[in-house]
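Page 47, continued from p. 46.
Same chain as before, 302 aa.
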Amino acid sequence: MILFPTDALERSEVERDYRIEFEAACAAGFNTALFDFDGLRRGDTIEQILRRVPQSISPQALIYRGWMLSEVDYARLETGLSSLGCKLINDAGAYRFGHHAPENYNLWQRWLPQTTWVEREKFEANGEVDFAPIFDALKQFGAAPIIVKDWVKSQKHRWAQACFIPNASDKSAVRRIVNRFLELQGDYLTGGLVFRQFEKLRHNEAGQTFEWRSFWFDGQLLSLSPNPVGAEKPTLEDVAEVASQYPSRFFTLDWAQRDDGQWMMIEMGDGGVLGLPSGIDVEEWYRNLKQAFDNDAVLASS
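Result:
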């Protein structure tokens, strides 16, 4: 079964941004169910949130496809589904691992840009930001350019105002951009601040960087898609090596090519919340997911 969020205006319908995926999942043979995403974010009762999810007589594996959730909301969803006899493919621990840099950086440091972080409790007290621990953490970058995000999300769509810091030693710029980032994140700030060295990436004449997104299910590659079309393909041995170490059943790995030609991992995450690349054949993707899902069910019952 696949769980999708309901539409914010039509509660009995799937969220409009997921309608194509919902139809493809049904066509591939998946059972589907809907839950109230906004209600989960508001803190509604779990019974109200999951009122459209049927009770399962026997344990049923369930894949989530929808918007990003906080660690707390994901764990609450997992617990509520469990009471209905449904078990999420990825538990809360696997979900957290994919999105929290402090949990996954040491495992994959070899493939990632230089990264450090500062826990929220170390820089924030009584609503005020203490920049001393932040400046101390940034010394390792020298004057290199960096980006700032929290454990889960960045403000990359506000690149110059709340994400990109051209010089890690420029304290004035660090203060300005970090303060704006914290303001925009507000109550949704997760964990603390993550700082990652900015790497120059190869790009085409239109400015599009050469990136690939891969989806994996139980160690099986579901898709490897370029952005833009025609981008040089990464070394599959490296991608497979990272995938073999990922403590999750359904996940994504994103790769990009640096100016020097080397490939690096730029993002990883839960397979349920990362978007499908533009131009991908959605129906084929869901057929591949269904085949991998059914193969696992056969192995589990044998």
